[in-house]
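Researcher: Final request for today, and then I'll write up notes for the group meeting. The sequence and the SMILES for copper (II) ion follow.
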Amino acid sequence: MAVIADREGAYAPPVREENYLTWDHSIKSWLFTQDHKRIAILYLISITVFFLLGGIFAMLFRIELLTPAGDVFEADRYNKFFTLHGVIMIFFFLIPSVPATLGNFLVPIMVGARDLAFPKINLASWWVFNVAGVFALLVLVTGGVDTGWTFYSPLSTSYANTSVFLAVTAAFAAGFSSILTGINFIVTVHKMRAPGLTWFRLPLFIWANYATGVVIMLGTPVVAITLFLIAVERLWGVGIFDPALGGDSVLFQHMFWFYSHPAVYIMILPGFGVISEIIPCFSRNRIFGYPFIAFSTLSIAILGFFVWGHHMFVSGQSFYTGMVFSFLTMFIAAPTAVKIMNWTFTLHGGNVIMTTPMLYAIGFIGLFTIGGVTGLFLAAMGLDVPLHDTYFVVAHFHFTMVGGMAMAFFAGIHFWWPKMIGKMYPEFMGKFACIIIFTGFNLTFMPQFIVGWLGMPRRYHAYPEEWQVLNVMSTAGASILGFGFLACIACLIWSAFWGKPAKQNPWGAKGLEWEVCTSPPHPHNFTSIPVVTEEAYSYTGEEVLDID
Amino acid sequence: MTSVTMGPAEPVIPHHFETKPQHNECNILGMWLFLAQEIMFFGGLFTAYAVYRFKYPDAWEAGSAELNRAIGTGNTIVLLVSSLTMALSVYFAQTDQFKKLVASFSLTMVFGAIFLIVKAFEYHEKYTHGLIPGAWWDPIHPPEIDDPSKMQLFFIMYFIMTGMHAFHMVIGLIIAAVMMIMMLKRKFGPNKYMPVEMFGFYWHFVDIVWVFLFPMVYLI
Ligand SMILES: [Cu+2]
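Model: Predicted protein-copper (II) ion complex:
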């Protein structure tokens, strides 16, 4: 790749051999860094803590569900466990997972820029996220919250006597931090691309994070004001959504889902981006149908705003409204299927190399397809009536969010780990953890499809005895899954300290981060801004792995 | 007489930008996106307001009649004038006219403050009329409609919407005060007018919110 002249920065750049991790070791240089790569690492630490916390709550209620009787925890405590699991996993893990870590790290590098457009705002985003995290921890110490992560009114406004106010404040602040990230991404992609890097030469990871930014920007403020109204209603004691005082609780559901359905695309679109990078790399093949994947990303982002009513088929929304939402929801499956097809065709005829990231990515395709197809079941209005609020729904969204998003997140973390940390993780341990996670995941959630189909409702701590076998399977699976996650995280942390140093391009991958940046990158990413002369994914099949 | 240009002598470019125009374009686009999310934020409130208006038209009419249209109109004019002086401030910063910049920017702040003071008097009037929802709710002339309690919902929405707008004004004035100090230290000028322009975007946006809020709450 050709280069153009370097323009030195406002402050003296560090010595050339240094990388962004080593050039300054002080705590201050980390906590107040404006370097997008360091902020990515900070975010990675924060969300790992919340991921483990959310996982602990999942284990606690899975223990309760081992036996049909509600014997280990009382119902109140059970309600708090699943609520905290939902709030923490959604607002503090899934939403920031890929954008705030891999996105922060890679968006500027992939567009050939030295940083995001607004580095200070990026740092502010991490701080706001941690303030939100403090509120979430305050919820824990003040006795938890038991409304479910959806905060439905009037339960959340009139009946719950738990820390609803702190919980909605935490979600509000976490949403605000994601807005800052989203705006930063959009501006960076529009205005900071390197010379020659046209829109259709951008890696699909960039398209995905760009579309995510748009959804964050347009959706999050709506849930922010909705949660704000809930907080006002509780503090002020007036009835905004409480039917007893003239309010409309269905209006709350509309406003909540107007964000919270698009939020699932905030969670999954960046995952799609990760998969679109890994599949061509380890198939040694050009991605099949680049423009189709790019435009399907945008159309999911747009269509995602018109399907929220599928959460309200049994909430008293009119029959015709339900029909429209049902139809639109099925419609959105089309662009998603387009992606699955394109990844499959990329594999087809490729020279597939089974590394850990590839294993996760292929697991993603299978699990996400199951999650997506069962989503179509639930989009069908007639079928949703019996399945609504059963374990079928629980299994469906865990297939998309854990089988989909968490798998994509771990795929991406393993893929870019050598670039971010400069160390290779042990390949055998990586694959081992991946297989454990895949096995545990299926054992956890497959039985939930069946038990949901049989009619077991979600959010109850006791259930009839005939469903015990399936629930025991699910709890056993959750234990295996939890072990897999711990093994995976332990393996990565171990390698950060004692792993083998990574070469610049261990995977033989295409892209600015591999072809131009050192591992780990220089604090300013590039010694000079690269000029891009070819499209992304120009794999020839000749690339080789460069691992000792 | 020596000609002194206010602000920095050379355009200031942070290290991660290549050119000054790139820096400016990023700022402008970022501000537009921020305002887009603000529109969605207020949009949620406007939606809730509209839904309840259709549900309880009588209560809404009675509630709206309690508001003082003359004061509302006057305040609208105050705010529109502040937008004009704000636009002039940007122009004076770009064209290197220091005294006029300070004057017009001060006027913007003064008009903003007048708006808030008038608003505070309006809120107090509502208080004396017993129109604060919640525990204090005790209207001195209850509306003659089927279900007078629904007028409370109108005033909840009134206070939240105008309060959220006033909150944005307060934030604006705080930022303006900081900018005023920087301005007097000659930090802004033809080579660095972006902060003034960015603040202008924000200020105009807050005014436009009021332009929609005023007819919705006071007039219809
Ligand atoms: Cu949905």
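Model: Confidence is low (pLDDT under 50) at residues 1-13 of chain A. Residues A 261, 264, 310-311 surround copper (II) ion (CB under 6 Å).
Researcher: Thanks, that's everything.
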